Amino acid sequence: MERYDLPDANGHFGPYGGVYVAETLMAALDELKNEYERVKADPTFWEEFRHELKHYVGRPSPIYHAKRWSEQLGGAQIFFKREDLNHTGAHKISNAIGQALLARRMGKKRVIAETGAGQHGVATATVAARYGMECFVYMGAEDIKRQSPNVFRMKLLGATVVPVESGSKTLKDALNEAMRDWVTNVDSTFYILGTAAGPHPYPMMVRDFLSVIGEESKEQMPEVAGRQPDVVVACVGGGSNAIGMFYPYIGVDGVRMVGVEAGGHGIASGMHAAPLSGGAGVGVLHGAKSYLMQDANGQVVETHSVSAGLDYPGVGPEHSYLKDIGRAEYVAIDDKEALSAFHDCCHLEGIIPALESSHALAWAAKVAPTMAKDKVILVNLSGRGDKDINTVAGLAGITL
Ligand SMILES: *Cc1c(COP(=O)(O)O)cnc(C)c1O
């Protein structure tokens, strides 16, 4: 791999990314870009960031050898990067902290966020409480019904949850509404975006904050596994946990990178959330160009996945680029395969994984038996599954 130095000054990863927004948002994004450029070069910002990750989040998260599962599969050794052990249960908090610290430097006392399943809403409400900021979370009315425990969590943390009644009343509508709020209140407000998508500089910023995942892994793997992994695997919704794991490994030859999308009821059914591996075209959504699930008229289509966190029709622009240049591969795992890996992980390792992460686990479990016993697969276990037990119980016909 030659030197990799993306995005360019305008936020492009090859043909992807960029800034496709209304004139009214340009000034806000410019201000953000300039401020981020300043802090990027300021060591005191990163010192503060690292301090928070250590003392509030509990980083570094450990690497764990899933020995029993690996033995049962009879092939490559599977290791987990334990992002499930972070405060609030997933990788998302590290991004929320980075953006909140930036907001504080910019003198913004009000933060807003979009959320689908509620995980990013909870992470944002958490950091808003931690730094004494006012917090509004936009959430589709349909999602509010489906995710009541997370709605209550956000309220406990002092946030206001704003129901979004437009469109399909889900994540993409919440994102539109959050952008609208930002335009109106840009002087007082910082928009904490929840994944490595959206207009420049968000995909770059979110990647930088979450690169701590791959950086820690690079340091820990020689100690725990004796060497760097042959393959790193992560699930891909918008792509933030995956790019956090991949980015530090891009320049490391010999490390294969695999992003696992939600295959839902199967690619052939059309009911999935796999823009990179499901044969989708390219389009513009939420301010950036990327692979995107749309119909013949360019309308964004409804997606399906058993895991709410992967249920997004778009994907971050850097993944689109890594796919095109062949540096990363993208595959789909369907609902059934993910659920089966979910149960295996519970039984064999004593870890209840998030349904999102179960997609990455399922791919590892499928491929490990085809690899030699001295090969190493590192799975980013992006979050814990406590939030998913109602879903899993419901699928088994059990009401909790
Ligand atoms: C939100 C979430 C995801 C999907 O988001 P990305 O931006 O693709 O990482 C994956 N895993 C967990 C546990 C999540 O909460």
UniProtKB/TrEMBL annotation:
Positions bearing N6-(pyridoxal phosphate)lysine: K92
Reaction(s) catalysed by this chain's protein: (1S,2R)-1-C-(indol-3-yl)glycerol 3-phosphate + L-serine = D-glyceraldehyde 3-phosphate + L-tryptophan + H2O
Keywords linked to the UniProt accession: Amino-acid biosynthesis, Aromatic amino acid biosynthesis, Lyase, Pyridoxal phosphate, Tryptophan biosynthesis
Record EC number: 4.2.1.20
GO cellular component, one term: cytoplasm
Tryptophan synthase beta chain-like PALP domain sequence ranges: 58-383
Cofactor: pyridoxal 5'-phosphate
Pathway: Amino-acid biosynthesis; L-tryptophan biosynthesis; L-tryptophan from chorismate: step 5/5
Entry keyword annotation includes Amino-acid biosynthesis: yes
SUPFAM superfamilies with a match to the protein in the record: Tryptophan synthase beta subunit-like PLP-dependent enzymes
A molecular function (GO) term: tryptophan synthase activity
Task of the protein: The beta subunit is responsible for the synthesis of L-tryptophan from indole and L-serine.
Family affiliation: Belongs to the TrpB family.
Subunit description: Tetramer of two alpha and two beta chains.
This protein's name: Tryptophan synthase beta chain
